[in-house]
Amino acid sequence: MSTKKDKFSIRDQLYMELALDLAKACEGHTGINPSVGCVIVKDDKIISIGRTSVNGRPHAESNAIKNCSEDLKGSKMYVTLEPCNHYGETPPCTNSIIKSKISEVIYSITDIDKRVQGKTNKILSSKNIKVKTGLLKKRITKFYNSYFYNRKKKLPYVTGKIAISKNNLIYSKDNPKITNIFSDKFTHFLRYKNDSILISYKTLNKDNPKLDCRLKSFKKFSPKRIILDNKLELNVKSYLFKSSNKENTIIFYNEANKSKVNYFKKKKINLIKSKINKDKKFEIKLIMKKLYNLGARNILIEGGNDLTNYLLKKKLFNQFYLFQSSKKLSKLVEFKKFNGLKILKQAYKNKLKLKSNFGNDSVTLYR
């Protein structure tokens, strides 16, 4: 049985680092389940690897066992998160581990899911399988921050993002392009890593965005589109409206007239009526609870000035990316300024701030 005196070799660390890399590869695409990585070793040789499948099943341990063409008896398994030990839509991973005759299991951290939490050690130890825990604990705990937040709060983990020019504009009709190609690629990476993306109808009508992931070969991992549109005022000629269906788009509304509601429903768009407050703003926490219940676990919000400031004041963001270009945008014609820098800095005062450069652009992560 695992104790606080568990010691690990450099090889142990390398195998667990590989398991973590496997988990990271599928992060954001495992549905309501966490993304887990698994490595199986025998005689200091890797004989199999596995990770949680897209949409969450089969689990990493089951995949690694199934993928192995060698005899597993006497082998050692490295896994980022405590293996499941309960029956759900699939049998518990502990059953597969026991049946395979694996002799030792090293998992980094305990699962927060109460159906699993802390029970695996006892189950495996009762079958004379050696169990150790705590390897790369700090790094792997950090990796599962969003999953832990999901489980504790029953809410999606929310990432905010906005791009501004050197003179703090988020829009200029004369030169609408703000950030460079490197920042753009990172934005698409964020879309790839989040299962949903949220904007307001104002941003939709202004920019006519696609909100998809355009990294090569990853378009199929584009996030579900979520639109806040109280009176259903979005442009019906927009790309998002024309490409919407019940599977890829959700629109939240409240005060729209019946004819508009019926028109949108005829287009087979997923409409959800949601409460608004006295300021005619959506009760955003209710929307987040609804989205969680619908399976959303990681949401990227690419809002404009008004939505971003409102959500910052509501302390909705778990983390926030501020992209800032080195170029100034024109104020000669139509333009829009971002006036939330003070609010952003105040919201994340005394919290972690990481700054990087993408070419001439700077990207600051607040969390």
TL;DR?
The chain is of the alpha/beta class and 367 residues long. The chain is built from 13 helices and 16 strands.
Overview of this structure, please?
With 367 residues, the chain is an alpha/beta fold. Helix content is 31%, strand content 23%. A 9-stranded mixed β-sheet has the order 11-10-9-8-12-6-13-16-15. Strands 2-1-3-4-5 form a 5-stranded mixed β-sheet. Strand 3, helix 3 (93-100) and strand 4 (104-109) form a beta-alpha-beta unit. The radius of gyration is 23 Å and the shape is elongated. The chain starts with 9 loop residues before the first helix and ends with a strand. The mean pLDDT is 94.
Secondary-structure map:
Elements: H1 10-25, E1 37-42, E2 45-51, H2 60-67, E3 76-81, H3 93-100, E4 104-109, H4 120-125, E5 130-133, H5 137-143, H6 145-153, E6 157-164, E7 169-172, H7 181-193, E8 196-200, H8 201-207, E9 224-228, H9 239-242, E10 249-253, H10 258-266, E11 270-273, H11 284-293, E12 298-301, H12 305-313, E13 319-324, E14 335-337, H13 341-347, E15 353-358, E16 361-366
Parallel strand pairs: 3-4, 4-5, 6-12, 6-13, 8-9, 8-12, 9-10, 10-11
Antiparallel strand pairs: 1-2, 1-3, 7-14, 13-16, 15-16
